[in-house]
Please model this.
Amino acid sequence: MDANATTPLLPEVMEAMRPYWMEHFGNASSIHLHGQQARTAVDRARETLAEFFNCHDAEVVFNSGGTEGDNTAIFGLLHPGDHFITTSIEHSAILQAAQRMAQHGVDTTFVPPQSSGLIDPMDILRSIRPETRLISVMLANNETGVLQPIEEIGKIAADTGVFFHIDAVQGAGKVKFDARRFGCHMLSISAHKMHGPKGVGAMFVRRGTPVESLLVGGSHERRRRAGTENVAGIVGLAKAAELAMHSLEDGTIDRLAALRDRLESELLRLPGTGVNSGPGVPRVANTSNIWFDNLEGEALVIALDLKGVAVSGGSACHSGATEPSHVLMAMGLDKTRARASLRFSLMKTATDADVDHVLQVVPAAVKHLRALSPVEAGTLG
Amino acid sequence: MSQPTTIAVAMSGGVDSSTVAAILARNTTGAGNSVVGLTLHLWDQTRLAGKHGIPDAPKAGRCCSLDDVYDARRVAEHLGIPYYVVNQEERFEQDVVRPFVAEYLSGRTPIPCSLCNNHLKFDQLLKTARSIGAGSIATGHYAVNEYDPQRCRWILKRPADLAKDQTYFLFGLTQEQLAHTLFPLGRLTKPEVREVARQHGLALAEKPDSQEICFIPGGDYKQFLTAYLEEQGQPMPETAGELVASSGEVLGRHDGISNVTVGQRKGLGVPSPSPLYVLQIDPASHRVTVGADAELATRTLRAGRLNWISIPALTRPMRVKIKIRHRHEPASATLEPAGAAEVVAAFDDPQRAVTPGQSAVFYDGDEVVGGGWII
Model:
């Protein structure tokens, strides 16, 4: 129930990667046969990703994952004196990169969401200044699953001549991608959020986008990302992307949405609960963020884990302790409610039995916790 | 009890609590019995780092430093027990750090460890333990805790290793808390604990003990007060004042009552033929009285905010030994109730530097009778 954190490899992904550890171990930059085998694998993967993004092969850059993509868009494009627009509900890979750029003379506007979890494109438009160079908005929020109106933001970017990056890490495999229709110049994904391996990702970079490489030291990826290609990882990413495209067509994602809806409506039958996103707001199929009055989310997360149900209750700080979600706080939840909120995120392989298990464990745990230690109002604030 | 039990071990990343986890993990192998490791995250060690002389990179050996959480996690992994970090930063700041700062600013010398044990640690650990289905908690404190069916009370006793005795910091435990707390190290000495740690293959068996206040990297509380108040946007209150002799004669000035402690000798800046000590701090007039070592000695003590352990309440005078600071050898005294919520003690022999803000813990032999805060 924590697929937004990470997902396991699908067997097909494992199989696709297998030959590239020992048998076809070549360096894709080498001229000889081993190198050519690796080069072929990377080129094929690039074709698959181009189909996944709906872009040209040359617009695909392989990298180490979502954090690198997000960092590249910001560090690679912004210069002292530039203005940057993003939202206050982005992943830390965006937020902390923006904070670092503040030390280099880049001013950032953090647009807050509405209480529904949606970003209002008009708020983005109103934030644009003559020196605005980049807008970065996530496709789907990791905590609430809310899908942001990126096509409208893409139009605003086009009309105002501002570069547009989409952090699509949480949207990958859950909604159909079309980099052209999205109107973005850059878009970042990570393999492990869609049943691919950890440590590999890809970026769509529209031709002519003057983004500089974070890493130098070779002409890999058309000089946009130095470093020997992670061939097995790239092959795994491509396989995961291929399977994700199938899932979007064959009804898997619709079935997932129905499962999530059943989970959500059953959990909402518990008194003192609610969904942390506005009614009718578009969401990815797998995510439900629910608040539970009168309990501490952190204790509930631990209690559920000990019963075999893995959920998330905020973001982990450096020690591993839980901090209230900055996303929920930005949406206007108070700390007590943000702490008492849990994110359920289903894998596309989830079954009715998985949901049944959660529905057996969670209500019992919630009742137990509420009976034990009612949270007095204000003590956690 | 044949019911399966779960015990939550409070793990700090030190040798003592790691050894507790190891002992319990081995002893609870029965069906359904289990051990869960918990670390309370109390303070962000990087929060004031680099400000007003506070070290940048906290050394290991303090709660909540990343190294210690890492060590605790590695021990849990080694033992194969589930492990979680529980965020209590806000509560720690509210219940321990703010009172600690306020006490110093009012001229008293607080003990944050007792504040933490009394108001946060045991209460929160038990709360979290129950939430996750654990009936009791275990800590690495050196103390003995046993039920006396005759008195129908849980009794807290000094441990086998008197050099490591931590009962002074535990006087605030309630009967309810004692009933659900295990101190598995109470009958072991520190060298024995290290030996047990080695036998369990714990890599940190030789890790040095921590001595300092956990949220004050570098151990300089004055730096901490300055940095914390600045962060809070509060000015350091102006508490400079006169240094006077017990006769009332003005000898000089001091630069703030939070910079002096009863019993302090160094750094007063008053030339004198014989050593001068801080005798008394008056928070209202900011006047600090100094005098000879002999003048530090007092025969009486008053304490409030009491907690009783071996007795339900003090109703008549009682002969006890009283410990007035961590490294103090308990001294014989007669304890009497004073009003509903306070006690006064008359020591047989005068005691040096009875310091407001510290705890007074009352012993009857090895047993902790109770304790309170020196007024």
Notes: Residues 252-372 of chain A form a domain with the Aspartate Aminotransferase, domain 1 fold (CATH 3.90.1150.10). The first helix of chain A runs from residue 11 to 17.
